[in-house]
Specification:
514 residues; alpha/beta; eight-stranded parallel barrel; 8 strands; Proline dehydrogenase; FAD-linked_oxidoreductase-like
Length: 514
């Protein structure tokens, strides 16, 4: 019974551990879980230097991802077991498909079933991938990861909203995230994350995106409500979402658009006041033009005097990602606006391809994963070069080891300083732990993406993580393999200690010392 929740890969890595679990008593397992095994201090955390101190260059950017003891030595055994179990379940496509079917079915309308499912999720995937249900739990999570040398990206995990009342409630949640960041230890929070779909009705975002696309096709098309912004499209951008000239916004739509702008401006003002950076998440291409419009118009207002407060997000799996990044960044630089970006690969692959196919167009996503990797690495290289020249900022959000290594080497070659506030690596909480620790050990700033909120509110986030990352989890076994090796090392050490204690010589020593 003790082994049925563990990843098959983990069990295959050390069969003796399986036999031990099957034969161990509950008390024995509890004892193992509580053991530290390593009295030596954990590896040095990312330096938290005052800006007045002289910073040193990162001279050796080689990521050591082989030393499992150094990477995971500070993690309690019970946590390693739980992480391996959750990763194993998340990598099982049949399990994920069944779970998604259950959650999206009418069974969730039955209170008894719903309560049972939410309780199960709370103690498995939610606990693994999320920072908690309340601000207090999220704060505790930030402190825990900060003790290990990481920073937190606070994500009040609310998503699509269809009415202004809901948008107002969500704004209060985002403002609460900024207040939470302000209350935590200095430098422990790198960003607050917000979704425009949470503070602007999604139907309006689609309408605004249609109008922006049509204006790109026909520059004479006048949009009276449009604020100053940076380039949103490039020549390679997909415009098939808008095939006919859209009607102008109605007075009610213009009023709702103004309300949405006011919500974002209030959030930006709070971030400026408390000196907390804000990153706007990207979403699917049907509404991304409006999201970029909100982001860039706010960046023009609030990214001042070299201080990058508002960050946009570029999804490298889109064919136009690199060109848009280049055009937008160069325009912002020419206007003296310090622009920051979070670089990701992308999270809406299946829906994007289905929509394009339905409309009879090629997918906006690269034709191969290799092309996506190349685009991501080119975008990262471009932004690192800007930072080395003293412009802009970037968050390299990646679970890909090769991309992490290439970016680390590039930063080293460019002489980017350790602790440079313009460069941050990031991974989702509960994922790519080996890469996170490796980057931290090499001297880089590393953040973990920390969604929090009630389980039922965070459920859409968890479903998306499961759907988009199951391929990643099933093909990239680095964390599972290293965790398995570390658990095997601890088991071997425990067995050796037991045999030493049971040996006649040790018995004589014990008797002689009493």
């Amino acid at each position: 019974m003790a082994t049925k929740f563990l990843s098959p890969k983990l069990l295959n890595t050390f069969p003796s551990f399986t036999r031990f679990l099957n034969s161990a008593s509950t008390a024995s397992l509890a004892a193992v879980a509580s053991l530290n095994f390593d009295e030596k201090p954990e590896p040095a955390a990312v330096e938290k230097q005052p800006t007045s101190l002289k910073q040193e260059s990162i001279t050796n950017a080689t990521l050591d991802l082989d030393d499992h003891q150094r990477l995971f030595g500070s993690i309690p055994t019970l946590n390693l077991l739980r992480s391996s179990a959750n990763l194993g379940l998340a990598a099982n496509e049949r399990f994920v498909d069944f779970g998604m079917w259950i959650v999206n079915s009418r069974l969730m309308e039955t209170s008894l079933v719903r309560d049972a499912i939410l309780k199960t999720v709370r103690h498995t995937f939610f606990q693994h991938f999320c920072a908690g249900e309340t601000t207090e739990e999220a704060a505790d999570c930030v402190r825990r990861i900060h003790d290990k040398g990481f920073r937190g990206m606070l994500v009040y995990a609310v998503e699509h909203t269809s009415d202004n009342a809901g948008c107002d409630r969500n704004l209060e949640g985002f403002l609460g995230s900024v207040e939470l960041a302000k209350s935590l230890p200095a430098s422990s929070v790198s960003f607050v994350i917000a979704k425009i779909t949470a503070i602007c009705p999604i139907g309006l975002l689609k309408r605004v995106s249609d109008l922006l696309r049509w204006q790109y096709k026909d520059p004479s098309f006048y949009l009276p409500w449009k604020l100053n912004t940076l380039p949103i499209f490039s020549d390679s951008s997909a415009l098939y979402h808008t095939l006919e000239k859209p009607a102008p916004l109605s007075p009610k739509e213009e009023s709702d658009l103004q309300l949405a702008h006011q919500r974002l401006l209030e959030l930006c003002q709070k971030c400026v006041q408390d000196n907390v950076a804000l990153t706007i998440d990207a979403e699917d291409t049907s509404i991304q033009p409006a999201i970029d419009y909100f982001t860039y118009s706010s960046a023009i207002m609030y990214n001042q005097d070299g201080n990058t407060i508002v960050f946009g997000t570029i999804q490298a799996y889109l064919k136009d990602a690199k060109e848009r990044l280049f055009v937008t960044t160069k325009t912002a630089q020419s206007l003296g606006i310090p622009m920051g970006f979070k670089l990701v690969r992308g999270a809406y692959m299946s829906s994007e391809s289905k929509l394009a196919s339905l409309l009879g167009y090629d997918s906006p996503i690269h034709n191969s994963i290799q092309e996506t990797h190349a685009c991501y690495n080119d975008c990262a290289s471009f932004m690192l070069e800007r930072i080395a020249d003293g412009y802009g900022a970037v968050v390299l959000a990646t679970h890909n080891v090769e991309s992490g290594q290439l970016a680390a080497s590039k930063a080293c070659d460019l002489g980017i300083q350790k602790g440079n506030q313009k460069l941050e690596f990031a991974q989702l909480y509960g994922m790519s732990e080996a890469l996170s620790f490796g980057l931290r050990n090499a001297g880089f700033q590393v953040s973990k993406y920390l969604p929090y909120g009630p389980v039922d509110m965070v459920m859409p986030y968890l479903l998306r993580r499961a759907e988009e990352n199951r391929g990643l989890l099933s093909t990239s076994s680095l964390d599972s393999v290293l965790m398995g090796k570390e658990l095997k090392r601890r088991l071997t050490k425990l067995q050796f200690a037991k045999s030493e204690m049971a040996s006649p010589s040790s018995m004589k020593i014990e008797i002689g010392t009493h």
